[in-house]
Structures are given as structure tokens and as C-alpha cells.
Amino acid sequence: MGGDHGPKVILPALVKVIERRPDVRFLIYGRDDAVRPVLDQLPRLAGVSEFVHCEVAVRMDDKPSQALRHGRWKSSMWKAVEAVKNGHADVCISAGNTGALMAMSKFCLRTMASIDRPAIAALWPTVRGESVVLDVGATIGADAHQLIDFAILGAAMARALLALDRPTVGLLNVGVEEIKGQEEVKEAGLLLREANLKSMDYRGFVEGDDLGKGTVDVVVTEGFAGNIALKTAEGTAKQIGEYLRAAMSRTLMARIGYLFAKSAFDRLREKMDVRKVNGGVFLGLNGIVVKSHGGTDDEGFAAAIELGYDMVRNRLIEKIKSDLDTFHARQPQLQAEIPAAAGDGDE
Amino acid sequence: MGGDHGPKVILPALVKVIERRPDVRFLIYGRDDAVRPVLDQLPRLAGVSEFVHCEVAVRMDDKPSQALRHGRWKSSMWKAVEAVKNGHADVCISAGNTGALMAMSKFCLRTMASIDRPAIAALWPTVRGESVVLDVGATIGADAHQLIDFAILGAAMARALLALDRPTVGLLNVGVEEIKGQEEVKEAGLLLREANLKSMDYRGFVEGDDLGKGTVDVVVTEGFAGNIALKTAEGTAKQIGEYLRAAMSRTLMARIGYLFAKSAFDRLREKMDVRKVNGGVFLGLNGIVVKSHGGTDDEGFAAAIELGYDMVRNRLIEKIKSDLDTFHARQPQLQAEIPAAAGDGDE
């Protein structure tokens, strides 16, 4: 029911996924009058799907607390998250209200044992390929232990998605000399270096320009700076796209040049296509939830589904659990330092 | 003496400025053996300059404390800053060690009365023109009063440089619903809205993608997020430049297209030329100091000088002083709230 376009975009996206991941099965949660008419036009989708009517749909402008109040136990969003909890679904994908989705996911799935707060991870296109960047907006501020949790979560995601045995990890920091970065970041860096984990190759601090370079496979930061970095990069890409469009249409010669180079421009457009990296992954919960951009089209929503599919296929949750266990078994003093009240895991 | 190339790049930059700002005069501080041979080749520059030999030069890798210890009172960097303090110069420009330059500037020029900490402001190219963004790296973290100071400083800079009567101002924040941003940012927003200043048109929160759009003339943030945003944007621009270069050289058709559209590409390159927006402006001190990128060429360093020149011509320091006075006169309760120990102004 979520996103700017609802079932009209969501359901055609599912059809695209069936073509590329033929063993996929869908549980579709939504209001009958909105979903049925579209689903009836898509017999192939109907054949591999189960549709569950839900009277209540979370609105895009509901506050998380409102959404929980009105939508808990019964809304389509809640039901979709609950399907993961009950084991009916392997992953939940939504283009709906981010705050509500995070609130319901936390409430329903709970954070993993030893994880204090979940993070939202993004796949970041780089000149080398893709990196995992987290947190891009679930939290504001993070202490050293939370940053280490994010590093473990992000490294597991990189192993599940990017076919890496031991992804490189960096902590996002500022490089100007008079300030050596946030205390939390420095402390997390010391602890990560000391831990020398098998699941990741910790490489130290990275700066904002290392994101696009792909200097490391996983970039770890708290959510305020991470969200600003993500949106700044999106804004810069759009800005340069506008410059390019304006330059290419300004003179006849430029327009002729554009025609000759059209396939090159198409390739560039494909490279810069944000739809292909659509999907913020909620990490640190007992289940996988993927948040699609609300404004995306069917291709973008399909990418978010496939992101979830691939993480399930590559056993992301098991990887995370085993990495967390290994880390805490080797760092018992660290675990003891985390106040019991901070974690709300259910294990 | 600073930057990656020293006098070989710095002095030719001064020649460029003389051509475009014929009334400029230079005080050049450096080691005789490094500066003289280059200066002797540039008679026109020698005619409008005074060269002052300084035995000591701050190294690019000196820590700020080291630089102060070895370079205070006598290094070329100190002498250049001191020239502003003594009124011998109107503005100091350096391509040297950022941390050392900020430490010496603070120590020598002191912060303005009522200003707690200086900020570094950058000119940010946008699709609408240019915006002022601060702080991009002088500080980590900022409370509400410091953010308000940054807003006043940035608005004065926008008026001095961008020919605006009442620049629009936004506070950089995150927009995801479940978290409403940092407490300090929210408090600063309330106070700015309440103050309704003549010197700026406060427009509320902006997000990372508003930077490139030029949604507001002045974007205010603390230095950690600001530095990461700045470097992320630089990195993204480079990344897209690489994509574009790769796309345009991949096929014969693309290369032919490139030739036809060459003037358009030149225009794009000019738009994306970071040299033209070179220069971090230290704001909040009793004098103007501009930090050029260390790796820039003569055109880039010339841009940093002209940035300083234009701010002096447009009486930036007087604008800031008068805006601060107006603000604090109207907000006596706010001034009273600032702990006396926080300010180290000398007025």
C-alpha cells in the first residue's frame, strides 16, 4: 500500500522479479479494493502469490507513534513484518513510511541479542563497484560499541551481497588536522583494530570522498552524518546530471555530438541509475526488512525485492549471528561493559 | 611556503590576480631561498609586493600544537596572520597546514566578542549559483548558540560575496520521520525563527540534497557532518567525471560525439571546476583568513585570493560585527545564557 504510487507500481515490480528469480513466492498485504483490481490483471503473479486483505494501511505522513497506535496487529505493514517473525516470509519489503516501518520492525522483530540499536544500510555505487554504508538514518549519534555493531552488521551484509570473504571496513571521519574526529569514532577504531576479526579487514578511518572511490567495502558512521552524506551524494549526482543535460542541448554541435555518443550517454545514465541501488536494509533485527524509496518505479521496487532475496539466499541473518557470537566470545570484557538496559534483544 | 608546490605555484597566482584586481598589493612571507628565485622572474609582481624573509616555515604535517610551539612569533604563517592583526594586511591567504593555520589564527586574531568558536565556510556550487556552507571542518559538534553564530557569520558572508540583501538560511538536518534531528539543531531552529533577523531570511531545515539544489543561500551545520558532506560531494563529482570519461572513450561513435560536443564538455568541465570555488574562509575571528586547498594550481590559488579580496572590499568584518551586535541587542536573554567562559573574544 506504500510509496507514492501503491499497488500500481508495486505489483508490476513483482512480475519483473518472477522473471529473474523464478523460485520467488509472494505474500501480498493490502486493502482489497486497491490490490485486487491490479492483481487480477496479472495472472502470472497471482499464481505465485497469496493476497491477504488488511483493512488498515499506514499513511505516508503518519508519525511512527501514530502508526503503531493505529496499525499495530492489523495494518498491512504490520502483517508484512509479522510474516517474517512467524517464518511465513523470509524478508519484508515496503515502499511505505520509513519511520513507521522502522518502529514496527523494532517492535515486532526485536533487535538481536547484544545489538543495542538497528541501523539502515545502503548499497553505495562506487568507481570500484558497490560498498555497504551504514547507518544512513536510523539513529542520531552512536557510541563506540554501536559503531562496532554497525561494522559487524555491515561486514556480514557485504559478505552476503558482494561475494567477499573478508570485506574491508572503514570508519567515516574527518581528516582535518586540528581535530582528530569524534571520540566515539576514535574509540571504535582502537577496539576494531585490537579485535582483528576474521569477518572483516578493518582499515582505519575514511573520509567523505572515499565513499565514491570505494576505498573500503563497508563504511561505518552514525546516522546523522550518514544520512547527510547519502543525500548530498544523491543531490550532487542530480546536479551534475542537470549541468550535463544543459550543456548537451545548448548548441547544435553539442546536440549532434549527443546523437553520436548516445549509447555512451545511455551507459552513463545506467551507471548513475539510482533505481538499481534502491533499498535501505534494516540491520540488527531478528529478520530482514528492506525499505524501498517511496517514489521509485517498478524497476526500482524490483531491485529492492531482489536485494532482500539475495540476502536471504546468502543467509545474512545466520552470518550476522555467528559474527556477533564470535566477536563477543572473544571480547567478553566488551560485552560486560554494555549496560544491560541498553539492549532490548529478545534472546 | 605552504601547499604541495610552494612559491612555484603561489607566486604565479599572484600575477594572475594583479591582472584582474589591479589595485591589489601583496605582502609575501617565506624563506628567502625558496621565494627569491621565483619572485626575481616576475618583475611585475615584485613591483606591487613586499617580501619578508622568515627563517621558519610550518610543515604540512606539523600538528597544530607543534606548529604553535616552533612557529609562533616567527614563522611565515604566523607573520602573515599577524599582518592582518596589525592592520598591515586586509586578509591573509595560505595554502599551508589547515590545523596550524586555524590554531595560529585563533591565537593571534582571537575570536570576535560573543563568538565562541570560529567556523570554516565554503562556497558551494549549486544549480542556482553558489551557496555558503559552514562549518566544514573547524569544529566537531556545535550547540544551538554556536549554530546561530554560524548562521549570522554565514549570512554576512553571503551578503558580502553574493550580492544579496537578505540571504536565505537553512539548518542542515535529516528528514527521516522517526528521528527529528539533533536537539541542538531543533533548538537553533526555534531561536532563529523567533529572532526573525533583518540580516537573514531563516527558512528552516534543509537536507543533504538541498546543498546541490541551492535551496537556500546559507547552509548551517556543525563541522563533522559539514566536512563529510563537502568531501562526499567532491568525491561524487569526481566519480561521475570518471564514469563520463570512461563512457566517452569506449566506442568510436562516442569519441566522434565527444569531438562534436567538445565545447559543451568544456563548459561542463568549467562548471565542475573545483579550483574556482577554492578557499575555506575562517569566520568569527577579528580578521579574515582564507585557506586554499594545498594541492591547487595557480588558477585555484588566485581564486582563493580573489575570494579574500572581494570579502574585504565588501566589508565582511563590519557586516558581521554589526549583525552580531543587532542580534545580541535584541536577544539579551540569549547572551546571558552563554557562559562567560565559553567566549575568548578580546573585546
TrEMBL record, chains A, B:
<dbReference type="GO" id="GO:0043811">
    <property type="term" value="F:phosphate:acyl-[acyl carrier protein] acyltransferase activity"/>
</dbReference>
<comment type="pathway">
    <text>Lipid metabolism; phospholipid metabolism.</text>
</comment>
<keyword id="KW-0444">Lipid biosynthesis</keyword>
<comment type="similarity">
    <text>Belongs to the PlsX family.</text>
</comment>
<comment type="function">
    <text>Catalyzes the reversible formation of acyl-phosphate (acyl-PO(4)) from acyl-[acyl-carrier-protein] (acyl-ACP). This enzyme utilizes acyl-ACP as fatty acyl donor, but not acyl-CoA.</text>
</comment>
<dbReference type="InterPro" id="IPR012281">
    <property type="entry name" value="Phospholipid_synth_PlsX-like"/>
</dbReference>
<dbReference type="GO" id="GO:0006633">
    <property type="term" value="P:fatty acid biosynthetic process"/>
</dbReference>
<keyword id="KW-0963">Cytoplasm</keyword>
<keyword id="KW-0594">Phospholipid biosynthesis</keyword>
<protein>
    <recommendedName>
        <fullName>Phosphate acyltransferase</fullName>
        <ecNumber>2.3.1.274</ecNumber>
    </recommendedName>
</protein>
<dbReference type="GO" id="GO:0008654">
    <property type="term" value="P:phospholipid biosynthetic process"/>
</dbReference>
<comment type="subunit">
    <text>Homodimer. Probably interacts with PlsY.</text>
</comment>
<keyword id="KW-0808">Transferase</keyword>
<dbReference type="Pfam" id="PF02504">
    <property type="entry name" value="FA_synthesis"/>
</dbReference>
<keyword id="KW-1208">Phospholipid metabolism</keyword>
<keyword id="KW-0443">Lipid metabolism</keyword>
<dbReference type="InterPro" id="IPR003664">
    <property type="entry name" value="FA_synthesis"/>
</dbReference>
<dbReference type="GO" id="GO:0005737">
    <property type="term" value="C:cytoplasm"/>
</dbReference>
<keyword id="KW-0012">Acyltransferase</keyword>
